[in-house]
């Protein structure tokens, strides 16, 4: 089994990076692994910690319509260049976390994706250089308020709600290009999404290179590589699971957001 790098919170509130052992113990590292974190003498017993999202990025850069069939189901052509947008770090939740369904939306969709974790500062990189900057791989769900995406004409609000980026459960160093990505909703054994990650239009090295021509990627940053065909709506009470062979699975539950925040009164006109 591949080494699984985790980020956890111990019972005393301390947050650690570490290696998950077969018995679910965590061997604690003295720094994030992409910053050359080394093993310490501290080991956290199973059940003594909370599993967090596996990194705390300064930013999440995401890619739209990076599978041909998904672009088709959205009624658009495949972009000639990677289509970029961003999600705020405040959207991140860990595996088994709760996606909060916002009152502003009537259509919230799942989007299972492969996520890249950057290990080194990346600026103006070639694809070959960019590949060396990808430290590891994890799973993401690019949750989207589809009706607001169409209404707003740009994607910031629709993609950026709190809890709209489930991420995890851990990071692995390598993943097979032929790994299958699948998304399941509730107890249905038939996946609603199923594709191989090598079906991407723009592969990971090209994506990271392209992003780095415009945006500096820092260690611990996350790149979402796009979702395959089969996106669809979630309802309050649903459970959604995204699986990628060689990594594991990312679970989330869906619940109603408690209340609608009040908007400020408009300023009086002159």
Walk me through what this model shows.
This protein is mostly beta strands and 270 residues long. It folds into two domains: 48 residues, SH3 type barrels (Roll); 197 residues, Fumarylacetoacetate hydrolase, domain 2. It is 13% helix and 38% strand. It is built from five helices and 20 strands. The protein has a seven-stranded mixed β-sheet with strand order 7-6-17-11-12-14-8. Strands 4-3-2-1-5 form a five-stranded antiparallel β-sheet, with no helix packed on it. The chain has a five-stranded mixed β-sheet with strand order 9-20-19-15-16, with no helix packed on it. Strand 15 and strand 16 form a beta hairpin. It is globular. The relative contact order is 0.22.
């Amino acid at each position: 089994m591949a080494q699984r790098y985790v980020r956890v919170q111990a019972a005393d509130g301390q947050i650690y990076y570490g290696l998950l052992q077969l018995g679910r113990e965590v061997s604690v590292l003295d720094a994030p692994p992409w910053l050359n974190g080394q093993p310490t003498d501290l080991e956290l017993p199973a059940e003594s910690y909370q599993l967090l999202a596996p990194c705390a990025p300064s930013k999440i850069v995401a890619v739209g319509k990076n599978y041909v069939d998904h672009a088709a189901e959205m009624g658009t052509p495949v972009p000639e260049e990677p289509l970029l947008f961003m999600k705020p770090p405040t959207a991140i939740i860990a595996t088994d976390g709760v996606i909060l369904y916002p009152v502003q939306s009537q259509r919230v969709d799942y989007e299972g994706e492969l996520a890249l974790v950057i290990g080194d500062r990346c600026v103006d990189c070639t694809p070959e250089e960019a590949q060396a900057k990808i430290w590891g791989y994890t799973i993401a769900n690019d949750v989207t308020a589809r009706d607001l995406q169409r209404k707003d004409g740009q994607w910031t609000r629709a993609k950026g709600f709190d809890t709209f980026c489930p991420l995890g459960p851990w990071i692995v160093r390598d993943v097979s290009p032929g790994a299958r990505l699948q998304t399941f909703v509730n107890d249905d054994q038939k996946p609603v999404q199923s594709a191989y990650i090598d079906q991407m239009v723009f592969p990971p090295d090209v994506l990271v290179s392209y992003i780095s021509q415009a945006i500096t990627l820092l260690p611990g940053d996350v790149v979402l590589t796009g979702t395959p065909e089969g996106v669809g709506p979630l309802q309050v009470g649903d459970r959604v699971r995204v699986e990628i062979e060689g990594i594991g699975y990312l679970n989330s539950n869906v619940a109603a957001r408690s209340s609608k925040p009040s908007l400020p009164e408009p300023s009086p006109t002159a």
